[in-house]
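Reopening this ticket.

The earlier resolution said the output was attached, but the attachment link was broken on my side. Pasting everything inline this time so it's all in one place.
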Amino acid sequence: MKLEILGLSSHYGRRTVLNGVQVPAITPGSVTALLGPNAAGKSTLLRSILGLQASKGTMTLDGADLRKLSRRDRSAKIGYLPQDVGARCALTAIEVVLLALKQGTGWAVDEQDLAAAHSVMDDLGIRALSERPLHELSGGQRQLVAVAQSLVRRPQILLLDEPTSALDLHHQLDLLGLVQRLARRDGLTAMIALHDLNLAARFADRIIVLHGGKIAADGTPAEVLTPKVIADVWRVQARIESDRDGTPMVVPEGALAAA
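Inline output:
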């Protein structure tokens, strides 16, 4: 589904977090990375799309007003991984995934449900964790279980907030590679908040940089990841190199002096 955001604003008390954010159509089959320094509004943008954060502006899915969708319809179309993945749960990993699958449809579990849960856990390489209680898992393992929750209903829009924060490099590459493949194969529209600029360059078709509640840059990785943007937004001097595939790589050289 095509996602479009026009004039989105959101506040926490008197503090403006998003100020008239414009995101032209994000097309199915693509991965969009949200970048920006801490408190730039990345999480607020994702929560606003899902309806968890009060905001003003227009958000549409294939031209239909997103705000007019019921919570049930919105959750059926949109998969979401929050930044903070809770661990206080006595359920096993497979039970947690099944809970997400059966949300709003009754709690009886059949063989088809189990097959769907096992399939997404296989995709993420965590099938062996199925019968382990969530509270016994490491932070990275819990994060992958949470990703399985967001994927198991086969959403049309996938919103991931810092999905790699607790993962080692191997699992970071595996997870983002999986999201990229699902986007291509299933026409999924994925938006991922990240801090690692080089991961974004490697796996995203489009990068949106938030800074000061507004969009500082929007385009392909090569268009967005420039020394000027990096200096203006992150206050870091960097040079841009390319790997063998032509993907830009950000090489930091030092922090700029405070103004």
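Reporter confirms the inline version is readable. DSSP finds nine helices and twelve strands in the chain. The chain has a mean pLDDT of 91.
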